[in-house]
Write a structure and sequence with these properties.
Rossmann fold; single chain; binds adenosine monophosphate; five-stranded parallel β-sheet; D-amino Acid Aminotransferase, Chain A, domain 1; 14 helices; globular; binds glycine; 3 domains; Dna Ligase, domain 1; alpha+beta; six-stranded antiparallel β-sheet; 428 residues
Length: 428
């Protein structure tokens, strides 16, 4: 079976690795920049912008691929799935109209309200700056400010965290007023990803990502500095009831998309804030999370290529999807100064990964040496029977890297986890 993976980051390296463990899979890769990890697994690669739809379609058809797995959101937003499927090549990833669940934050909230999906925060959509500014000035409380379109996870600003009221007004003005304003939610975040075949949704282990650049969850938002998951596939601050509610929200979202005429096939990613009133949707993504893909795919025991095949035919069942009952910790190394002033172009030396799995991300290989670029560089995933074991494996590997890169030491540590559990207890 020939599978093309579109995208060249850590997430796509994890997808490629999971696919290449299936015997009989021949892997192709289309990515903007050569990811050395993916290149080593693929039979053939094409270096090309992932949003260049004609090139993606041409590559997939000339190589005769059976399926295409789309990693990032930008090609979904460019309609690459619509064009591939027109050529008879099924994809893991929704068509343009269905991907709006991620790519258009106003569409997402309007779907949730129209279909009465629970877990929707109070929100308002604005198209001009004057109305949005007036709303901010008159609102009693803090707001989350979200640009309507894609921002690579870095466009959201929270009043009371990143901005005061005047700052919020200025930010909205700089965005031309095209924003969704939402009540600021207080709680602990978690990620629930699911395989969706159009009808069925099969959930994956819960993961917690760390968006903030610095230890203690301080500093600017990033694409995600690292993430962890627990051996029981839940999180200690998420009750069974919270989890069931989150899964029901995802099921309702998929059903609503079908009823609205935009059937959804692909990975559905739910980012939830666990509040004192239960889980509320921060956002949906139409793809795996990065880094969250590295946690769950490193644990996947069943055959990923079979899952892909069954998703495409709409026949996926829970027995097709099995994850090891282990904990994972993923730590990203990023260039010093990331995300605001990244110091790119420095040599990065990986000395000893130990038992950790190494996933390459935004890194360049020249004459056998590796150099950082401006985005997240590479990641390690540790796996263990306990979170502590997994953390140790990831931490030892991450701290063995030499070069002008850094990582968050606190991700997956007991201290961090205890703080989150205590915080949630206080909220309830
Ligand atoms: P997003 O790009 O929607 O994932 O938002 C980025 C980050 O902003 C999230 O991971 C949250 O930490 C935060 N955020 C988004 N929406 C809200 C909200 N309504 N209340 C509080 N924090 C939020
Ligand atoms: N880890 C957050 C995301 O992939 O959007």
């Amino acid at each position: 079976m020939k599978v093309l993976v579109v995208g060249g980051g850590g997430r796509e390296h994890a997808i490629a690795r999971a696919l290449s463990r299936s015997s009989g899979t021949i892997l192709f890769s289309l990515m903007a920049r050569k990811n050395p990890g993916i290149a080593a697994l693929a039979t053939d690669i094409l270096l090309e912008r992932e949003t260049n739809v004609p090139s993606v379609v041409k590559y997939a058809t000339t190589r005769g691929v059976d399926y295409v797995v789309i990693g990032p959101e930008a090609p979904l937003d460019a309609g690459v799935v619509d064009h591939l499927e027109k050529e008879g090549i099924p994809c893991i990833g929704p068509v343009y109209a269905a991907a709006r669940l991620e790519t258009d934050k106003a569409f997402c909230r309007e779907m949730m309200s129209r279909y009465g999906i629970s877990g929707c925060p109070l929100y308002r959509v604005f198209q001009n700056s004057q109305d949005a500014e007036e709303f901010i000035r008159s609102y009693d409380g803090d707001l989350a400010i979200k640009p309507i379109g894609l921002t690579g996870g870095k466009g959201v600003r929270i009043m009371g965290e990143h901005l005061d009221r005047d700052g919020a007004v200025g930010y909205v003005r700089s965005l031309g007023g095209k924003v969704v304003l939402e009540e600021r939610l207080i709680g602990e975040e978690f990620t629930l990803q699911a395989f969706v075949d159009g009808k069925h949704i099969i959930p994956m282990p819960l993961v917690q990502d760390h968006k903030r650049a610095y230890e203690g969850d301080l500093g600017p938002n990033t694409g995600g500095m690292g993430s962890y998951s627990m051996a029981d596939h839940s999180l200690p601050f998420v009750t069974r009831d919270d989890r069931e509610k989150a899964e029901a929200i995802m099921r309702d979202a998929v059903l609503a998309m079908k009823q609205a005429g935009f059937p959804y096939r692909g990975i559905l990613y739910g980012q939830f804030m666990n509040t004192s009133a239960g889980p509320v949707v921060i956002e949906f993504n139409a793809r795996f999370g990065d880094p969250e893909a590295m946690n769950v795919l490193s644990l996947l025991e069943s055959d990923f290529a079979t899952i892909v095949e069954k998703m495409v035919t709409g026949n996926l069942s829970p027995s097709d999807v099995r994850f090891a009952a282990k904990a994972t910790v993923c730590k990203y190394l990023v260039p010093e100064g990331y995300p605001d002033t990244p110091q790119a172009g420095q040599e990065v030396r990986v000395r000893d990964s130990g038992k950790a799995i190494l996933y390459y991300a935004n890194i360049e290989e020249r004459e056998g040496k590796l150099y950082s670029l401006t985005s997240r560089t590479l990641a390690f995933v540790g796996i263990g029977d306990t979170l502590g074991e997994a953390e140790q494996v990831a931490e030892e590997a991450a701290s063995s890297v030499q070069g002008n890169v850094r990582h968050r030491r606190d991700i997956g540590t007991r201290e961090m986890l205890e703080k989150k559990v205590a915080r949630m207890k206080e909220l309830r």
